[in-house]
Amino acid sequence: MKVNRREFLKLTATTAGALLVPSGAALAEEAPTFPLHKMVGETPTICCFCGVGCGAIVSAEGGRVLNLEGDPDHPINQGSLCSKGLALAQINTVDGEINRHRLQTVKYRASGSSQWEEKDWDWALETIARRIKDTREGSFLEQDGEGRTVNRVEAIASLGGAALDNEECSLLSKAMRALGLVYIEHQARI
Ligand code: SF4
Q: What is the 92 CA–ligand 1 centroid distance (Å)?
């Protein structure tokens, strides 16, 4: 019978629990009343930093990452992570606090300017949507130079960032293809 890590741990815990019931009950009477530890859930995820796609397990509580480690059941990395992957938690949490270097507001630098301006999300979304619509409508290509139907947009490119996870990248590429984009990339492949 092939047993993976999680099943092995479950089996071990069940066996140990069964063996310890009598002495465990006796110990419970003497146990202190405060909780010795707190259980938090584990969520499997994919490291977003490069195209290798290592698996990781993350434990979080209250919006902060408590622990992150390589996923031993993942077929690619089998529990290991490189130094970048080990720092993955810092996208969110540093020394138990939300990373103070995370941008909390929209920053906009106009074409030709060297200054960043702070904008709100309504302005950013409206501006992005307007520019995509205008550019797409102004450049949509129904046929290529040899008369073949192509229905594509060559004037817009999409570049996914390192903080996008697997699922977000999947949604992004679908949305871009629905618009007709053909130049779609992600930093992990660059
Ligand atoms: S950055 Fe490191 S841990 Fe992350 S996917 Fe690439 S090799 Fe794996």
A: 17
Atom of ligand 1 nearest to the CA of 85: 3
Report the distance separating Cα 94 and Cα 102, nearest Å.
Answer: 11
Find the helix or strand (DSSP H, E) in which 173 lies.
Answer: helix 166-179
0.70 cut: is pTM over it? no
Write out the DSSP string of 87-119.
TGGGGTEETTEE-TTS--SEEE--TT----EEE
The minimum-distance atom of ligand 1 relative to the CA of 81 is: 3
> What digits encode the pLDDT tens for the residues 44-75?
998 888 878 899 999 998 888 999 999 999 99
CB atoms within 10 A of CB 176: 19
- Which of the listed residues 82, 165, 166 should we mutate to test ligand 1's pocket, taking the one with most ligand atoms within 8 A of CB? 82
